[in-house]
Every structure is written in structure tokens, then in C-alpha cells.
Design a protein that fits this description.
Blueprint: E1 3-7, H1 13-27, E2 56-63, E3 66-75, E4 86-93, H2 102-113, E5 117-123, H3 127-139, E6 145-151, E7 154-162
Parallel strand pairs: 4-5
Antiparallel strand pairs: 1-2, 2-3, 3-4, 5-7, 6-7
Domain N-acetyltransferase: 17-163
Organism: Cohnella endophytica
Protein name: GNAT family N-acetyltransferase
Amino acid sequence: MNIEIQQAGILQKPIMENLMALFLHDLSEFADDIKVDDMGMHRFDVMDLFFEKEGLTPYLVRLDGEITGCILIQSGQYTNPEHADYVLNSFFILKRYRRRGIGMAVAGRLFSQYPGRYCCAQLKSNVPAVRFWKKVYAERLLDVFEIEREEDGNAILEQFFAV
């Protein structure tokens, strides 16, 4: 199993937009405020910023050369330096690759490539994501501090940890 996490360049922006549309479609099951636009598409409104601003970084995830998902990371001015070096904005694995240990392996590779203090959040109603991240933390023996907060009417679970 060869997992690659590579920063997406401007030529990969359409791929990232497609993956984020799929991510938002999946997430819409858990949040009523995630809706399609007038063209029937889910659009990640701030995708352009991830290709323009230092500290907002898009990554493509590949397994044995095939696109498997994507990750969006915030750093620098887009995080709270007192608590985290990185904010895991989005972590998406295509459905076909889920429940096979690939997401766990991708998380491990990410943390190896980018060690530091992280903030990771999930919608509390997104039980599969909450369960996934709790498994990641347990398997990696991470010391995690968790808070619950509200954002746009949604209950959010937010974890802080270092790798």
C-alpha cells in the first residue's frame, strides 16, 4: 500500500474542487446548512483561498497512484499559534476506500510528514467521523484535549493533540 500526500498545485485545482464537492455531499447528511447551489452543485466557497494564501494548503491523497481523497490544512495566521500549528480543515477519503484502514494510514502518513500540534474538528452528528478520529487517537496513543462548541447552529467536537 503506497500512500502519497502531495500538495495540490493550481493544475490540480479542478480535482480538488470535485473532491470537495463529494466531501460536502457526504457532510450534508449531517448538517442542514450544507446545500447545493443553483446549478445543483456543492461548492466549497473558499477553495480559491487555498491556492492563493500562504498558510492554506490543499493536498491530494493517492493510493498506489490513484486519487483516494484530499486534505485541507490551515497553518500560520490561519490557526491559533497558542494551541495548534495546524488546523485540519478537511480530511476526505472517497467512499470506495473507507473501512479498509486506508484513512488510518493516511492520517499516520500526514502526521509523519507534518509533525506538530493539531486541531481537528467534526460535526457531533457525524458519528462515523467522530468514531474514526477517536480510533486514530487511540491507535496512535495520542493525548487529546476535546471541547464541544457550536458553529452555525451545529454542535462541533474539537480536539487538540500533538504528534
